[in-house]
């Protein structure tokens, strides 16, 4: 479904990603690990057309995404939840969902409210008045109502309390079971073990390790070595 | 007392026109972070299109319908041909580019109709006065207040209650994220710019029977629109409404109390707002 072929990405003159390859099939969750500054977010932004990809190619369902504008990429069903969530603070919770809502989606706004009762309670609240966990829920919900063909999550559990992390794990498994593939940047190995089918580890913009869910347990030490500061 | 009330109403009428004039400027600034010095020219050309339609057909209502559409189209054409290439530039270059456009439009109008202003008469159905007890008021001015209030409600509804309006508000906070939801942000920009131009054109239509059409009214309007936006707060609908009314009422009431001081008071109000609330009455931090 998604195929990255020796992708090289740049911010101006700085070369950040070097010949990154990876593939993702229907119903799969691919975890991207790596320490701070390794290039994980840059990889997601490259897919979403937010970063200059100078060499290599990115295909989604056979369509070339490289150097396409991000709204066209999003329009093809790649729904992105950025690292800082980017909730619209001047809009209410409901409006945040409403502007993203696509009637073709498996999730209506009401489905979202039964999935996240907390968002229903706070639906008239401004996006700026939410807690970190609520913002993360809203950001994921906003992607789900957009009719995703693929979900791209950048560190969705970062800085959140264990109960909320569990809730997010559940949502990820739930989405996976509908067949929608997920690209997940995640520093927390235990979350990856629970939800990911396979993983890659990035270091200084290069893929240095890849493996299956089983390898996440078998090679914990090796992976932790790459994550340690 | 009656004179005061009369001037207050005149000020309201002026104020709602200032609102229509400024709301496009403030929204495009909020959404695009774009400084448009050609905005006043939309108002001026709106008045001239009204003059042309009224002299050809004698029908003001036709002008009220068509002129804003003409100006909206002009604004979109301008956005597509010039403005969209200057979003990435610094404000000072945006000012140079749009000031150039404004001067071109002004000179074009002078070439066609000369430097002397043209009169536009109000529609005959609104020519007289209305009497409420002892109080008399020109019908056309009363119409301007009512009609602009209606348009203000429509604009508010559009911004607050429609998906398009929510996208405009979202875009003024984080345009990139709006794009990531699959929305063509470039198109959202140009439609918004066009609607802002349309409203300035509408202000020009409504103003034409009150003050005629002249080539320099655009420059004057631009100055007023910036004062309104600074007082109300960049990017704020409510700011444009309150700012427009404050400036309109102040100018009108002052003109009977202390005519020489009318502009001075407006500038003083602007200075007071800048000093106490640098982002304007309703500006976001
Ligand atoms: N806008 C930018 N301009 C220039 N360099 C950038 C920019 N954003 C990130 N970088 C650099 O690119 C490299 C990769 O950053 P990236 O954000 O992809 O890391 P990351 O793996 O997501 O890290 P984190 O875990 O902290 O989110 C870093 O060296 C960073 O300094
Ligand atoms: Mg990151």
Question: How would you explain this protein's 3D organization?
Answer:
The complex is a heterodimer of chains A (229) and B (285). Chain A has helices at residues 40-47, 70-75, 93-98, 109-115, 117-121, 132-144, 162-177, 189-195, 213-218, 220-227, and strands spanning 2-11, 14-24, 29-33, 52-60, 63-64, 78-81, 150-154, 182-185, 198-203, 206-212. Chain A is an alpha/beta fold and 229 residues long. Chain A folds into two domains: 2-77 and 149-228, Rossmann fold, CATH 3.40.50; 85-148, no CATH class. A six-stranded mixed beta sheet of chain A has the order 6-7-8-3-9-10, with helices on both faces. In chain A, strands 2-1-4-5 form a four-stranded antiparallel beta sheet, with helices on one face. In chain A, a hairpin with a 2-residue loop joins strand 4 (52-60) and strand 5. The relative contact order of chain A is 0.19. Chain B has one domain: Orthogonal Bundle (ABC transporter involved in vitamin B12 uptake, BtuC), CATH 1.10.3470. Chain B has a two-stranded antiparallel sheet with strand order 1-2. In chain B, strand 1 (129-132) and strand 2 form a beta hairpin. In chain B, helix 3 (60-81) runs antiparallel to helix 7 and helix 6 packs antiparallel against helix 7. The N and C termini of chain B lie far apart (41 Å). The model of chain B has no long low-confidence stretch (mean pLDDT 93). Chains A and B meet through helix 2 and helix 3 of A and helix 6 of B. The structure holds adenosine-5'-triphosphate and magnesium ion. Adenosine-5'-triphosphate binds at residues 11, 14, 16, 34, 36-42, 83 of chain A. Magnesium ion is lined by residues 40-41, 83, 154 of chain A. Chain B: Keywords: Amino-acid transport, Cell membrane, Membrane, Transmembrane, Transmembrane helix, Transport. Chain B: InterPro entries: ABC_transp_permease, BCAA_transport_permease.
């Amino acid at each position: 479904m998604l195929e990255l072929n020796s992708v090289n990405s740049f911010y101006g003159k700085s070369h950040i990603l070097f010949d990154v390859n990876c593939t993702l099939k229907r119903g799969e969750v691919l975890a991207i690990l790596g320490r701070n500054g390794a290039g994980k977010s840059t990889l997601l932004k490259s897919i979403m057309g937010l970063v200059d990809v100078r060499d290599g190619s990115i295909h989604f369902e056979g369509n070339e995404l490289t150097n396409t504008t991000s709204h066209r990429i999003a329009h093809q069903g790649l729904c992105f939840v950025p690292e800082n969530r980017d909730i619209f603070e001047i809009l209410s919770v409901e409006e945040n969902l409403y502007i993203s809502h696509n009637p073709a989606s498996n999730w209506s706004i009401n489905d979202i409210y039964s999935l996240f009762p907390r968002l229903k309670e706070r639906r008239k609240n401004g996006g700026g008045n939410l807690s970190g966990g609520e913002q993360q829920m809203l950001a994921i919900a906003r992607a789900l109502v957009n009719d995703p063909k693929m979900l791209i999550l950048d560190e969705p559990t970062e800085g959140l309390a264990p109960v909320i992390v569990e809730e997010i794990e559940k949502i990820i498994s739930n989405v996976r079971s509908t067949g929608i593939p997920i690209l997940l940047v995640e520093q927390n190995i235990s979350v990856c073990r629970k939800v990911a089918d396979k993983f890659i580890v990035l270091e200084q913009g290069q893929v240095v390790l890849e493996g299956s869910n089983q390898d996440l347990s078998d090679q914990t030490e090796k992976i932790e070595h790459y994550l340690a500061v | 007392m009656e004179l005061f009330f009369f001037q207050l109403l005149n000020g309201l009428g002026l104020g709602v026109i200032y609102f229509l004039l400024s709301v496009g400027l403030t929204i495009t600034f909020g959404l695009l972070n774009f400084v448009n010095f050609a905005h006043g020219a939309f108002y001026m050309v709106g008045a001239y299109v009204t003059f042309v339609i009224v002299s050809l057909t004698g029908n003001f209502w036709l002008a009220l319908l068509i002129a804003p559409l003409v100006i909206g189209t002009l604004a979109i054409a301008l956005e597509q041909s010039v403005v969209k290439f200057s979003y990435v530039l610094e404000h000072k270059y945006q000012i140079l580019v749009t000031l150039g456009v404004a001067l071109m439009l002004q000179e074009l109008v002078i070439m066609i109709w000369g430097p002397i202003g043209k009169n536009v008469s109000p529609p005959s159905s609104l020519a007289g006065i209305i009497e409420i007890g002892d109080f008399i008021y020109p019908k056309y001015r009363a119409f301007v207040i009512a009609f602009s209030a209606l348009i203000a409600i429509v604009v508010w509804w559009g911004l607050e209650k429609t998906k398009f309006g929510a996208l405009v508000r979202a875009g003024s906070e984080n345009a990139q994220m709006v794009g990531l939801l699959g929305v063509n942000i470039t198109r959202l920009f140009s439609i918004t710019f066009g609607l802002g131009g349309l409203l300035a054109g509408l202000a020009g239509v409504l103003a034409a029977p009150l003050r005629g059409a002249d080539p320099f009214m655009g420059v004057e309007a631009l100055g007023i629109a910036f004062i309104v936006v600074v007082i109300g707060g960049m990017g704020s609908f409510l700011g444009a409404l309150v700012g427009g009314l404050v400036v309109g009422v102040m100018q009108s009431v002052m003109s009977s109390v202390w005519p020489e001081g009318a502009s001075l008071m407006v500038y003083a109000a602007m200075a007071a707002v800048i000093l106490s609330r640098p982002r304007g009455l309703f500006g976001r931090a």
